[in-house]
Design brief:
Structural class: alpha+beta
Low-confidence stretches: none
Oligomer: single chain
Number of domains: 1
Strand content: 15-25%
Strand order of the largest sheet: 1-5-4-3-2
Largest sheet: 5 strands, antiparallel
Distance between the termini: 35 Å
Bound molecules: zinc ion
Helix content: 25-40%
Shape: globular
Number of strands: 5
Length: 99
C-alpha cells in the first residue's frame, strides 16, 4: 500500500509539491480526471498503463492510499493517486458550479 499526501496549503512542502506536479503531469497524460473512476466511499479505480487496475482510497482531498507498488520508497505519490486527486478537484469544481 502506498501512502500519498497532498499538502497544497503548506509552504514547507515545495520540493514535495514539485514531485507531485510530476505525477500530476503523468496523470494528465494518462487521461487526467477521467482516468479515475469513482467507486463511492472515497474509492477510485485507476487503470494502469499495463492494463492493471488499482484502487485508490481518498481519505480526504490531500491524503491518498493506492494499492500499487510505485512510489513506496520515496514517498512520492503515484500517478494513480494523482489521477484521483484530479478527479476530486474536477468533481468539486462541478459541484460548486451546480450549487
Ligand atoms: Zn498507484
Amino acid at each position: 500500500m502506498t501512502t500519498a499526501s497532498y499538502q497544497a496549503s503548506s509552504p514547507r512542502t515545495k520540493t514535495y509539491r514539485e514531485k507531485i506536479e510530476g505525477r500530476l503531469q503523468v496523470a494528465k497524460v494518462n487521461g487526467g480526471a477521467a482516468a479515475a473512476e469513482p467507486r463511492g466511499n472515497g474509492r477510485y479505480t485507476v487503470e494502469g498503463r499495463a492494463g492493471a487496475r488499482y484502487t485508490v482510497w481518498a481519505l480526504n482531498a490531500e491524503t491518498f492510499f493506492c494499492d500499487c507498488k510505485a512510489g513506496t520508497t520515496s514517498g512520492t505519490p503515484c500517478w494513480h493517486a494523482a489521477a484521483a486527486f484530479l478527479r476530486i478537484v474536477a468533481d468539486s469544481a462541478a459541484a460548486q458550479v451546480t450549487a
